[in-house]
Amino acid sequence: MRFRALRELVLLLPQLTGLVARLAGDPRVPGRVKAILGGLVVYLANPVDLIPDFIPVVGYLDDVVLVAIVLDGLLNHVDREILLEHWPGDPASLERTAAVAARVAAWVPARWKARVFGGTRA
Description:
Shape: globular
Strand content: under 5%
Number of strands: 0
Distance between the termini: 29 Å
Low-confidence stretches: none
Number of domains: 1
Order of helices and strands: HHHHHHH
Structural class: mainly alpha
Oligomer: single chain
Helix content: 55-70%
Radius of gyration: 14 Å
């Protein structure tokens, strides 16, 4: 896995946090997607991780990969117009973010990703 893509996702966390908050309040976003976003927030806030955060670099790997899976799922299961409406940047930055998330999520087995979002568009 490329550490550059991971670093890009870490640098996007403030934008992603705002996106999650705004999507959670939008009535057009399906309840299942909101539950997934809530689960992501709880996991990231929880001090107990699959890989402890105190381990340098590797400690945040599970967090970043989970963010990538959820972001990739959002981009594939929520209408792009809704995402663009809530995205704090321009459309090109959302597309760049989508590309980074897709690169990181590509390393995750499809069956794991399917457990998060399932196979159908919300």
